[in-house]
Structures are given as structure tokens and as C-alpha cells.
Amino acid sequence: MIDSEKDSGREAADIAVHSAVELQAENIHLLDVRGISEFADYFVVLTAQSSRHLRAIASDMEFSLKSEGHIIHHKEGDHTSGWTLLDYGDLIIHLFAPEYREFYDLESAWSEAKTLSIIQ
User: Is residue 54 situated within a structural domain?
Assistant: First the structure.
């Protein structure tokens, strides 16, 4: 039997990755954190090149995900802070300016996560 909740998280992750690719985000990582995170199943981590770019990517992701029935639970940060977090329950999206991406280094912090895809 398929767990529809997990399928929903992966579907949302794929939508987010597609949106990031379309808007030319950089260093896009899709991580499977099931079994090592108690609060999410998937992370999408990406880099935007400017505050305008970060805002555009976040807005497009929110629109695309909402259009497919995925409701945001929580949002932190904004384009002026250099990072934004979009929480969809099973999916957490981390959008960073380059210097914040390097500083937080989430891939190392979650090194036990299975990398599902990397798009440079």
C-alpha cells in the first residue's frame, strides 16, 4: 500500500525543483530526510543570486504548489534577509543567497540524508 502523505511530499518536492530550475536557481539539492527528521520527509535546498531572484523563486514556488493543492504551513525570512524557508509539512524548502547557503551548509548538517537529485 502506498502512503499518500509521503507521495504528496515527493510530488511537492518535484514541483518545487521544477520551479527552481525554470527560474534558474543554482545548486538545487533534493534531499530525502525520511527516517532522520521528525518534522519533514524532503528538503529542497537552493541558491538564488540576488534578493529579487530569491523573491521570484519563492513566489513562483508558492504559486505552483498552491495550484497543485499543496498548502503552505509556515514561512520564515524573506528576500531581504538572504534566506527564506517555506514549510509544506512533509517538504521544507530552503532558499538562500550564496553567502547564507555557504554559512548554513545544510547538506553537511543533514549528511545522513539521501540525495535524490542535484542540479547545478
Answer: yes
